[in-house]
Write a structure and sequence with these properties.
Order of helices and strands: HHHHHHHHHH
Distance between the termini: 42 Å
Helix content: over 70%
Strand content: under 5%
Structural class: mainly alpha
Largest sheet: none
Radius of gyration: 27 Å
Number of strands: 0
Number of helices: 10
Length: 258
């Protein structure tokens, strides 16, 4: 699926998918009905309807596997963002044990990280261009600041350990969301779905070739099912893009105010 489709409302995606699938089904219908004459027509009519259920089951299983992958990726993306937000919130709260310049430094760096994530990393993840080569500079600086703190009592020593742990958890969660952002349904899987759809449409056309109305109705019903399946998967195949992509709201909610 192209970037253009993922950037627009799911209705536009549905219109494109339905149009393409019905155009394909119509082409198959015209081809088979024109060829279904004489001996070819008799051969088409003798194809057993019993082959349709296995084809439908195989198609349904493949679509189900793709749906599980897409929804698992979406859940992993949402979990990574929530964990990052939770870790950042903990870091901000614990930094209060070091009032003054240290606390303000931590809060400023966390705020900078959230702003960078929302304005730079999210668009890159939506386009699947985000990589792990660039370390989050604000989080790295915050971790360095936390490690350089000099606790004055046992409470601050515990707070320092918690602060370091929270920042490390935030860094790990960021890595996870960037990794998940690269997930999508590859062309081999899409090709398998489309091939099975075409094969099943051909089988339907062959089985009902003696009755053009029955052929058209049966193919229209199956084509609708194919279009709905593709639309649902395509609308959510990229965890951070599209109408149903994970947004940075959770991070923005824990952003420390100046």
């Amino acid at each position: 699926m192209s970037d253009w489709l993922h950037e627009h409302h799911v209705i536009w995606l549905a219109l494109v998918v339905f149009g393409a699938v019905f155009l394909l089904a119509f082409a198959i219908y015209l081809t088979v009905t024109r060829l279904a004459t004489g001996e070819r027509g008799k051969a088409f009519a003798r194809i057993s309807p019993g082959m349709l259920p296995p084809l439908g089951i195989i198609f349904g299983l493949l679509v189900g596997f793709l749906a599980v992958q897409v929804w698992n990726d979406a859940n992993r993306a949402r979990l990574a963002v929530d964990e990052e937000a939770s870790a950042l919130r903990s870091a901000v709260l614990v930094s209060a044990r070091f009032p003054g310049q240290s606390e303000e430094r931590i809060r400023e760096l966390v705020r900078g990280h959230v702003e960078r994530a929302a304005t730079e990393e999210w668009p890159a993840m939506a386009d699947q261009h985000a990589t792990l080569t660039a370390v989050a500079p604000e989080l790295a600086a915050a971790l360095e600041t936390a490690l350089e703190l000099e606790p004055r009592d046992e409470g601050q020593r515990v707070a320092q350990r918690e602060l370091v742990t929270s920042l490390e958890a935030a860094l790990d969660a960021r890595r996870q969301r960037i990794i998940v952002s690269e997930s999508s349904v590859n062309w081999v899987k899409w090709g398998g779905v489309l091939f099975l759809a075409v094969l099943t449409l051909l089988a339907i056309a062959f089985v009902h070739s003696e009755n053009r109305l029955a052929t058209a109705l049966a193919m229209a019903i199956f084509a609708s099912a194919v279009a709905v399946s593709i639309t649902i998967i395509a609308a959510q195949e990229r965890p951070f893009s599209g109408q149903f992509g994970v947004d940075p709201d959770a991070l923005l909610q824990v952003e420390p105010r100046p």
